[in-house]
Amino acid sequence: MKKPSEAINIVNLDHLGIVAGIIDEMELVEEVNKKVGIKIKETLSPGQVMKAMILNGLGFLSAPIYLFDAFFVGKATEHLIGEGVTPEQLNDDRIGRALDKYYRAGTTKLFTAIALKAALKFQVSMKSVHLDSSSISVEGAYKNCQEKSQMIKVSL
Asked: Where are the beta strands (DSSP E) in 46-89?
């Protein structure tokens, strides 16, 4: 019996493989890098950091930002985020620098660009587009009004 020359390393993808695939298909990393900009010496691009934050947010784990890298230990980080990416690179300092870049680029502009690109990529109908993410809620008991002029009208 021959011994393998390399040790087998088993890592998990869980449901994050599907999410990472959708992120790749909508080209989120490239869009973020285009809007925010990248530096030549950066080991992780702002787009890769955003991808990591999305995966972390959908990982059913609530932990402080200084434990961000611990989430990716034992996961297929290279496969999920990009070649050469290790959990140690996803530290709180790196996350903080990326968040600063997103803020300087304009978070609303960044979100709008990503949402529009995703809508076009996945052929989402855009009969009407509304950028206001606030919501409205109306509740209560109202007397039945016979006259239309007395009716409460809500338009969105």
From this structure: none
